[in-house]
Amino acid sequence: MNFLVDECCGSKFAKALAQLGHNVEFAGDVCKGATDISVVQLAQKNNSIIITEDKDFGELLFRYGYVMPGLILIRLDVDELALRLTLLKSLLNDKQHSIIGHFVILEKQRIRLRKMPSQT
After folding, report:
1. In terms of C-beta density within 10 A (0-12 exposed, 13-18 middle, 19 or more buried), how is residue 6 classed?
2. How many folded domains does the chain comprise?
3. Domain span holding position 16
4. pLDDT tens series, the chain, 120 aa
5. Entry pTM
6. Does residue 120 belong to any structural domain of this protein?
């Protein structure tokens, strides 16, 4: 599974996710300082699921109709790296096939999945 980790998540998180065996690109390495729309376009090009802390991506998806392979919004403190990885690992183990085409919100107490709007 391909992931594009937004700059706001940090390079440590991206590297740790890659060490779990996933194909990971870190936006800070491949498109440093890019706009959210540019990040979405890169995700489309590479068929990557975006991982971010930035709620603006949800707005791009639901309000403006941007197409994304998948979107994971992390709602945890940046200093909780171990917890972030544990929850993401759990998500991937339990629902790996459900992530594609879904908007996922990763929170300390729960993981929410919402099907993306119909994309034409």
Report:
1. buried
2. 1
3. 2-115
4. 899 999 999 999 999 999 988 899 999 999 998 999 999 999 999 999 999 999 999 999 999 999 999 999 999 876 788 888 888 888 888 765 578 899 999 998 888 889 988 654
5. 0.91
6. no
